[in-house]
Amino acid sequence: MLSHIPQAALDADPNVQLAKDIIGNCVHCGVCLSRCPTYAVKHEENDSPRGRIFLMKDMYEKGGVPDARTVEHLDRCLTCLACEAICPSGVEYSKLIAHGREYVEEHYKRPLFQRAVRELLVRLIPNARLFRLAIFGGRLGRPFRSLFSGTLRAMLDMVPTTPLPAPSPVDRPQTFLPAPEGGRAVKPRKRVALLNGCVQTVLDTAINEATIRLLQRHGVEVVVAAGSGCCGAPAEHMGDEAQALPLVKANIDAWLREADGPDGLDAIVINTSGCGTSIKAYGHALRLDPAWADKAARVSAMARDITEFMVEIGLQKPTIPTGLRVVYHSACSMQHGQRIVNQPKDLLRAAGFSVLDVPEGYLCCGSAGTYNLLQPDIANELKARKLKNIRSVQAQIAASGNIGCMTQLAGEVGLPFVHTVELLDWATGGPEPAAIQGQKLAAE
Amino acid sequence: MQMPEPNQAIISQRDALAQGLRQIVGKDWVISDDAQRRPYQCDGITAYMAMPLLVVLPGCAAEVQAVLRFCNERGVKIVPRGSGTSLSGGALPLEDGVLLVTSRLCNVLEVDAHNRVARVQPGVPNIKITEAVSHLGLCYMPDPSSQLISTIGGNVAENAGGVHCLKYGVTANHILGIQAVLMTGEMVELGGAYLGAAEGELDLMGVLTGSEGLLAVVTEIAVRLEPVPEVARVISMSFPSVEEACACVGAIIGVGVIPAGLEFMDRKVLDAVSVLIKEKFDDRTAALLLCELDGTAVEVDALVGVVSDVARAQGAIELKVSTTEEERQRIWSSRKLAFSAIGKLCPDYYCTDGTIPRNKLPEVLNKMADMSKKYGLDYANCFHAGDGNLHPIIMYDAAKPGDLEKAEEFGADVLIACVDAGGVLSGEHGIGVEKRDLMTHQFTEIDLQQQQMVKCAFDPKDLLNPGKMFPTLCRCAEFGRMHVHNGNLRFADIPRF
Amino acid sequence: MTDTQTAASMRPATTQDVADILMDAAHNRTPLVVRGNGTRAGLGNPVAATQVLELGGLDQIDFYDPDDLVIRAGVGVTLESVEQILAQKGQYLPFEPPRYAGLYGTDGARCTLGGAVSTALSGPRRILTGAVRDFVLGVEGVNGQGDVFKAGGRTMKNVTGYDISKLVTGANGTLAALTSVTIKVLPAPRAEVTLVLPAATLAEDVALFGQMRALPLGIGGLARRVNAAGACELLVRVEGTVPGVAGNQQVLAGLLAPRGGMVVLEQEASHALWAGVRELECLNARPDELVWRVNLPATTMPAFVEQARSAGCINRFFVDWAGGVVFSTMRGVQPEVDTLRYRKMAEQAGARATILRAPQDVLVRFGAFPPVSAGVATLGARTRAAFDPAGILNPGRMTVQA
Ligand SMILES: Cc1cc2nc3c(=O)[nH]c(=O)nc-3n(C[C@H](O)[C@H](O)[C@H](O)COP(=O)(O)OP(=O)(O)OC[C@H]3O[C@@H](n4cnc5c(N)ncnc54)[C@H](O)[C@@H]3O)c2cc1C
Ligand SMILES: Cc1cc2nc3c(=O)[nH]c(=O)nc-3n(C[C@H](O)[C@H](O)[C@H](O)COP(=O)(O)OP(=O)(O)OC[C@H]3O[C@@H](n4cnc5c(N)ncnc54)[C@H](O)[C@@H]3O)c2cc1C
Ligand code: SF4
Ligand code: SF4
Q1: Mean of the pLDDT values across residues B35-62?
Q2: Tens digits of residue pLDDT in B172-189
Q3: How high is the pLDDT of residue A136?
Q4: Is there a single domain that holds both residue C135 and residue C38?
Q5: Given this model, what pLDDT does residue C8 score?
Q6: Residue C149 CB neighbours (<10 A)
Q7: Choosing a second label site near A310 at 20 to 30 A (CA), which of A85, B93, B314, C178?
Q8: How many A from CA of B99 to the centre of ligand 1?
Q9: Which atom of ligand 2 is nearest to the CA of C319?
Q10: Does ligand 3 lie within 6 Å of residue A29's CB atom?
């Protein structure tokens, strides 16, 4: 699509030039509408990828302060990237919306209340301790939730009612050696760094524990690199580059220290697909920063989702025959962001599960990072739709590779909801996942 | 391309009209502010844009009726829109017209497996029908490449085709009943949910299909469902020359085989695609045919044998036959990626849609090569060979002054060549605004007048999607009165836009 | 007053002649009976005209391009000769046009291609290949003002202007005097067999039809009739390639085995059987009986037939299109009373009941074609006026004055 962005704007900001090029690739064919969750809910061009591309084209063409409606429609985008994954013309929507949001944050003054909520979230989520405190605070606030509406209420609702697990010992910086065989230590086949994501460390410590066991059992040495932490995605989703960049750079430093150290690093393994998408995009995020561009690109190239990595090294034969019907929910960051579609399902099948797909599986569950906090109405509708679709296939267990979706759905799906690695770990010799223990699973 | 002069008096009433329409469809479903109307400025052709007066999204057929009645009474034009994927500018808005969008009317209302029909709302994307019935072993056959998102209402309006319509027919052959609202707000039910439901009436449903939103707004459709063929296999056939590939098309049909699909790709397309699919095509290949055969396993095996023999006899240098569903998908992926692959070769492309008798393929393809030289624009060919439906892809750069105009002229020359070869201007994309001014090349003044008289019967005030399909506006009153004999040009004085 | 007792008959040989005749007629507002060779004059309402425009003389083949699956011919060419020409290249008219000559006591060999298009009568194969309307690619005709127009074209796909070819198909000559038609043809199936098996109750048989129709087996005919021996039987026609038919026949034989008593008819025997079905022979319509066609959803058919039989509106009947059409006879004892009741029943069942043959007074009073809603009637009238403002082409053929 031809755009008429003023030359001065193009010259001033390489991101605007990039936006122009991306917009230029869009032929307005509309194919992306078929996958867009906000279009599925709103049925309106302005809430579709093609519409948002148009809105951004307009925003750059006009320059200056974007209008409130444009901002609203851009805000509603879940950054699920379903549109990018399906686009036949290879339009890089993710980059367009990321820079579009930066532009909005730079030029648009949000109403006071919106600003406060956003700042709170940006600060809280990357910091595990603060988030933990906030959740406790939230729990105290819960009885008063009827006093709140909209976003604040959604924040309170997201607070788990069950006790939070104690901080896990595995989340401290350290190294885990491969599981010994016949009592003897084995030489590691591979050495990987594990990202111990921020939200995940608070909400469900068992996932990292299962990941480490699974890797150890497959002869892999795992390090939790000192200095690594939140991937920076939550801040970036809200267009807050200033908050995100220090986190990104800290991670790059921490991992490259390991990679360039004596033992080297074969991969950075990530078990939260949301974080995986963002780490794989470090290279792009820092491409214009000469001091960081190469380093960031190296890190991105080493990043692997745990299921990608397990397919590469091959899964051991299952030790217990489960045969359970598992409905696999693919997170957006998994299927669209990283285009990882078959690996998790293939692994689950190899581990002896019978795998079912979710109807309309391409639709986001509404979790999308901080989205359920900022756009509770759309998030709730998507959630209800996802729950209905998951329930429709009559599975015994639900699995996913992203903590965000799990928190969004677990409480209401009516099935034990576990992380893919927990099932892989269990089937190859690990403990039965806590969510399944003692549960009466739906009949065969 | 010129559109009728917008009526400023109507434009000046925008706010009042918006208010009135909000009372019908609810406040959220009338879009009036600038920023939000902009994304509706074009359909699948971005070369033509216009700001709609208002955008209205009704939530049920009764609201469609009320909106039309409201607009009819005030002399406000209506442009219906589905998903806006039209490639002829059929859903191009009018500055003094309300854009009526069907995207909220997106429910499959009823599936009747026994009688093999489904009743659906017009905004249902084509693919959703098949998704809704696939558990019954059924499908909705017409499969435009845009089927993920183009709506069934838009398909009816454009009489959409697809890869499989060679064997199974186009949209018109799969519609049993239509509920539609005339510009006056009056609703008509045509046909019904069974074969022969339209017996004994004039086939008004037939003329509504393919009428590009000029006759009525379709609010419900009863479609035929078909059993999903047991197996499908595709043969990829390489030819050392375009002529041999074209001859093979006729030869396959000549031996009595109607493939499910028969597609043509020239070398330029193959080179572009091979980058994306990371596969190389034999150097000697000048053109590739993809021939899909479906039916029961035994039947398909037999047909694969017959077609392979024909292809070899016609000079094919390489044949690849899919043996698994995965292989079939892989072979098709080159065709599916063709347009995006070409998109990577040039800033912009323009694709037209002329259709010719199959045996005229070599002749028209040769002419295209000459035109390419004349205009200095590159082109590639990837099309529905089995139907003779050409889709020349003309490459240009919209940012270069004059390039778009050259591309349009090139496209027009191709279409004229199609008509001269006994073909038609459009096989599946419709006339819209894009081919509108070429209609006089295919039809005489009388032919066109007869068509416009039909328009007058449905929409005497010419308020539904005017400025599309015909190079002149309808003058219903004059048509009724005047009579000039023997093909003398009737309304020589009617201004063209 | 009717088209059979004609005062003057014109039989032009060229399109220009037709145009001249119509221009004159328009000028003088002379209503005309438009027909091919008049073999199916009994179909539809009597036309209030004394002059006949007979188009059987336009009987040239303009071209036949077998590799392109298309034939264009004058409307007067007979179905028989078209079918012969196509058969020489192994092709056929997929919509299997019935002649109904037996019904009207005329000469089936003189039925014209134009008549087939104008009446839009489709045979038993409709459930597989489609109806007449699905195969008319283009037309040339003369409207009620004497203007020669063409619409459509000769290509398989075409969205260039309104699909007027569809509009004139089945218009029974009320929009235009067609002069030539362009028809899509198909390769005739190489193999054809018919499985004949004993019928059960209508409801059971319709359920079985439904089961068969859900399978992609190339079933080009599903009917239920009483045979010459008075036994009621189901007919299942399978068509396609030789190996395909053999395979599909086996699958069907398995499905139908529980019924027992299956007989298989091959090629010519099968052709002959279906020609009889197409011509409604199994109805054995007696000269004093009315003949009806009712289109309806197959699932509602059994109840409808039961009701109509017990009400005496159906005397004999048979079922085609997998249960989607019922052909029946009606005793000619009190035709007006029964017609009214039968139409009412059909209306309540959401069905469309067409009279294929009846005494003139019944047709004049009730109309051969089922009534349509007021909205559709108005739109139809306006559409007719768009072609024939003076109302000279077969006036009243399809509609009765309220
Ligand atoms: C990538 C791509 C591939 C395509 N491939 C094919 C193909 O293979 N075959 C093919 O035939 N076409 C194809 N098309 C063209 C296009 O998808 C079809 O014409 C489609 O039918 C348009 O549907 P829509 O819902 O987008 O309608 P729109 O573009 O919104 O509207 C198209 C026309 O229909 C009218 N209309 C829409 N809804 C209604 C209604 N309810 N009542 C009355 N009028 C209505 C509009 O006024 C307009 O004139 C393709 C387009 C794209 C972008
Ligand atoms: C299970 C079942 C299913 C039936 N299905 C049908 C059906 O599908 N269609 C139907 O019309 N009736 C059907 N009948 C009814 C039965 O066939 C009637 O008894 C018959 O039609 C009687 O017609 P009649 O009284 O006019 O002829 P009769 O005077 O009883 O019969 C005289 C002779 O006419 C011939 N004849 C009668 N009807 C036909 C016919 N339709 N076609 C050819 N020759 C005929 C026969 O050779 C018979 O010997 C069914 C009955 C049963 C029990
Ligand atoms: S699918 Fe891609 S090219 Fe098509 S409209 Fe969406 S972004 Fe643009
Ligand atoms: S990222 Fe998701 S929500 Fe945003 S436009 Fe694309 S598909 Fe829609």
Answers
A1: 96
A2: 999 999 999 999 999 999
A3: 39
A4: yes
A5: 78
A6: 22
A7: A85
A8: 15
A9: 8
A10: yes
Distance in angstroms (rounded) separating the CA atoms of residues A298 and A253: 11
The verdict on C163 and C237 lying in the same domain is no
Domain that holds residue C113: 1-187+371-402
Q: pLDDT-derived band of residue A130, with 50, 70 and 90 as boundaries?
A: very low
- Regarding whether C243 and C170 lie in a shared domain, the answer is no
Same domain, residue pair C4 and C142: yes
Q: Please, which residues have CB within 8 angstroms of residue A61's CB and are 6 or more apart in sequence?
A: A3, A4, A5, A6
pLDDT of residue A199: 58
Same domain, C126 and C1: yes
B443·C163 Cβ contact <8 A: no
| Average pLDDT value for residue range C291-317 | 97
Q: pLDDT value at position B497? A: 59
- Output DSSP code: residue C332: S
Q: Provide mean pLDDT across the span B313-320.
A: 96
Q: What is the DSSP string of C107-148?
A: -GGG-BHHHHHHHT---TTHHHH--GGGTEEEEEEEETTS-E
Q: Break chain A into its structural domains and give their ranges.
A: 7-107, 112-157, 169-311, 317-427
How many other C-beta atoms lie within 10 A of the C-beta of residue B452? 23
Do the chains C and B touch each other, judged by at least 3 C-beta pairs below 8 angstroms? yes
How many Å lie between the centroid of ligand 3 and the Cα of residue A196?
35
**B114, B169, B355: residue with CB nearest C155:** B355
What is residue A125's predicted lDDT score, i.e. its pLDDT?
Answer: 56
Residue B278's pLDDT is: 84
Report the range of poorest mean pLDDT among A1-5, A131-135, A240-244, B348-352.
A131-135
Query: Which chains are within 8 Å of B by 3+ CB pairs?
Result: A, C
Tokens 């005709």 — which residue? C141
pLDDT, residue B293, reads: 96
Count of CA atoms in the C-beta half-sphere (13 A) of A152 = 14
In a shared domain, residues C171 and C196: no
Does the beta carbon of B68 lie under 8 angstroms from any beta carbon of chain C?
no
Which CATH number is associated with domain A169-311? Answer: 1.20.1050
Q: Which helix (H) or strand (E) segment is A138 a member of? A: helix A128-141
ipTM of the complex: 0.94
Task: Please compute the mean of the pLDDT values over residues A63-92 and round it to a whole number.
Answer: 93
Domain end, chosen from C278, C301, C326, is at: C278
Mean of pLDDT values over A81-86 = 94
Cβ of C190 under 8 Å from any chain B Cβ? Answer: yes
Greatest CA span in chain C, whole angstroms? Answer: 67
CATH architecture of A317-427: 3-Layer(aba) Sandwich (3.40)
Quote the pTM value.
Answer: 0.90
B149-157 average pLDDT score = 98
Whether residue C109 is found in the same domain as residue C122:
yes
Considering only the beta carbons, identify the residue of B57, B148, B339 that sits closest to A44: B57
Task: Name all residues whose Cβ lies below 6 A of ligand 4.
Answer: A 35-38, 49, 52, 77-83, 93
Whole-angstrom CA distances from B85 to B41, B43, B45, B157, B169 are 12, 5, 8, 12, 21
Confidence of residue C265 (pLDDT cuts 50, 70, 90): very high
CATH superfamily of A7-107: Alpha-helical ferredoxin (1.10.1060.10)
> Is residue C387 very low, low, confident or very high in pLDDT (cuts 50, 70, 90)?
very high
Contact C42, C30 (CB under 8 A): no
| B108-227 CATH, one of 3.40.50.300, 3.40.50.1450, 3.30.1490.110, 3.30.465.10 | 3.30.465.10
A343 touches A276 (CB < 8 A): no
Q: What is the pLDDT of residue C161?
A: 94
Give the span between the Cα atoms of C209 and C320, in whole angstroms. 10
